[in-house]
Write a structure and sequence with these properties.
Layout (H helix, E strand, L loop, with lengths): L3 H12 L23 H5 L6 E2 L11 H13 L1 H22 L4 E12 L5 H7 L7 E15 L4 H67 L5 H35 L8 H4 L10 E2 L8 H4 L1 H21 L5 E12 L12 E10 L5 H69 L5 H35 L8 H4 L4
Parallel strand pairs: 1-4
Antiparallel strand pairs: 2-3, 3-5, 5-6
């Protein structure tokens, strides 16, 4: 048995904050540029509204968009799953923390025994004067045990559990951001499809009017049958585009209902009234690429997983060393009347110092350590790759936002010009100056330009959503999620 002095030293060592085997975690440096390539162009955009990163969806100035995002953040089932994962990780952290503390149990029993006289023991007892084959036994005990964390394996395990919990919280924030962005994206897509449908339906009406005019002229002998067939073919072509756009609109409306956690079709009546495509707002503050490391929740997830894998190296290394445990028992036991159970004569106590050491298992321990180091190297590479992808996401979103803005502005001018050209062409056709083919070409050009403008406006707004998501907007980080364990 170890001397008391040695035992006291071991316990004091286990309570020390340091002395945990394995590497202490230090957040790795990830090279990041000082500015985004497209940051200057985004900062110089001229927009009617400005949006901050936390509640960026309100910057689009569309109350219905804001309402659907709020519904999604409250009812989305992906978020419900993420919250459940956080609860599981919190329970794991509680279990790892409890492993550092003593555990205790209270037990008790009462038994009545009828002794056989045909066994060796029974034959001996039956020869004893006054032997009673009936017997009573009573016992009540309080036991306690404590694994003394001398070398810090349990503390490293708690570090890993804490990092896993923080990763799950950041993962829930990443899901929240993704849900908000996807909801806004679907809503903008709906408004874009409605705008394109309006263009197509106006063009159908225009082609019908044109066909009526040609039929009138044909009836008077002023137009050839070929012109009638050309007008009918152009009308059929425009009509054919409408069902495709309507099918896409139905799918987008169904997807929006699923995002807010309700049956498809629930909000269709509310969405059927066409509204303007939301205009992409100005981004209030893009920040620097380095700020993404503590602002984007998916990067926090990758960094916390790296911290957890680093701590598990210490857990594996701790298996090299002996495990010490303290066990104690205080209780009372008697085989007579229960009134004697807690008397001084019935008291019992025990104290045990346990030792467990995998002394001849170092080959397996080495393999476990190497496996933990391999996992740490993998998560380090994943963290660095995630940082690169984060910067790529921002650059791509910035580029798309600027270019789609430019495209929408150019197409707006083109639509105005082509509208005037179409009106002039139709007037000239009525006077017999130009052929029907020129009118049809003017109609086709106007339809294409109007549709492309609606698409460019839609894509500009969607690019803004992608930019806010890429910048990590839509949630507020907490220090506990961003600070590494040292």
């Amino acid at each position: 048995m170890l001397p008391k002095r040695t035992l006291a030293m071991l316990i004091a060592t286990s309570l020390s904050a340091g002395c945990a085997v394995g590497p202490d975690y230090v957040r790795p440096d990830v090279p990041m540029p000082e500015r985004f390539l497209g940051q200057a162009a985004v900062d110089q955009r001229h927009a009617t509204a400005t949006a901050d990163l936390v509640t960026w969806w309100t910057g689009f100035g569309d109350p219905q968009l804001t309402r659907f995002v709020a519904l999604a953040l409250e009812q989305n089932l992906d978020l419900a799953q993420a919250s459940a994962r956080v609860a599981q990780a919190r329970a794991g952290l509680g279990a790892a923390s409890a492993a550092l503390l003593p555990s205790g149990n209270v037990s008790g029993q009462a038994a009545r025994v009828y002794q056989s006289v045909e066994t060796p023991l029974g034959r001996v007892l039956t020869s004893t004067p006054g032997f009673d084959r009936y017997g009573n036994q009573y016992e009540a005990d309080l036991t306690a045990s404590w694994e003394v964390d001398v070398f810090g394996g349990l503390r490293r395990g708690r570090e890993a559990a804490l990092a896993d919990y923080q990763a799950s919280e950041a993962g829930a924030a990443a899901t929240r951001l993704a849900v908000a962005a996807q909801t806004a994206d679907i809503y903008i897509t709906i408004r874009g499809l409605q705008a394109r449908l309006n263009v197509a339906r106006r063009q159908v009406q225009t082609q019908q009017d044109l066909l009526s005019t040609v039929n009138l002229l044909y009836g008077k002998g002023l137009a050839a049958e070929l012109q009638v067939e050309q007008a009918e073919g152009a009308l059929a072509q425009v009509r054919a585009s409408v069902p495709v756009l309507e099918a896409g609109l139905d799918a987008a409306m169904n997807a929006l209902d699923v995002m807010v956690g309700v049956q498809p079709g629930t909000h269709r009546a509310e969405l059927m009234e066409a509204r303007d495509i939301p205009v992409a707002p100005q981004i209030a503050a893009t920040g620097s690429p380095g700020e993404l490391l503590r602002r984007r929740p998916d990067l926090i997830v990758a960094e916390r997983r790296l911290a957890a894998s680093n701590a598990r190296i210490g857990v594996a290394i701790a298996e090299y060393y002996p495990k010490l445990s303290l066990n104690g028992l205080i209780g009372s036991a008697t085989s007579v009347a229960s009134g004697n159970l807690f008397t001084s004569g019935a008291n019992q106590a025990a104290g045990v110092l346990g030792l467990r050491w995998r002394l001849f298992d170092f080959g397996r321990i080495n393999a476990q350590i190497n496996q933990a180091k391999g996992q740490e190297a993998e998560t380090l590479a994943a963290y660095r790759l995630a940082a690169l992808h984060a910067t790529e996401d921002v650059e791509n979103a910035f580029s798309a936002l600027i270019k789609r803005d430019e495209q929408a502005a150019v197409l707006a001018q083109g639509v105005d010009s082509l509208g005037r050209a179409r009106a002039a062409s139709f007037a000239a056709y009525q006077k017999g100056v130009v052929s029907l083919i020129e009118v049809l070409q003017a109609d086709e050009n106007l339809l294409r330009a109007s549709d492309e403008r609606a698409q460019a406006q839609t894509e500009s707004a969607r690019a803004a959503v992608s930019a806010f998501k890429a910048l990590g907007g839509g949630w507020q980080s907490r220090e506990s999620e961003a600070v590494a364990i040292n």
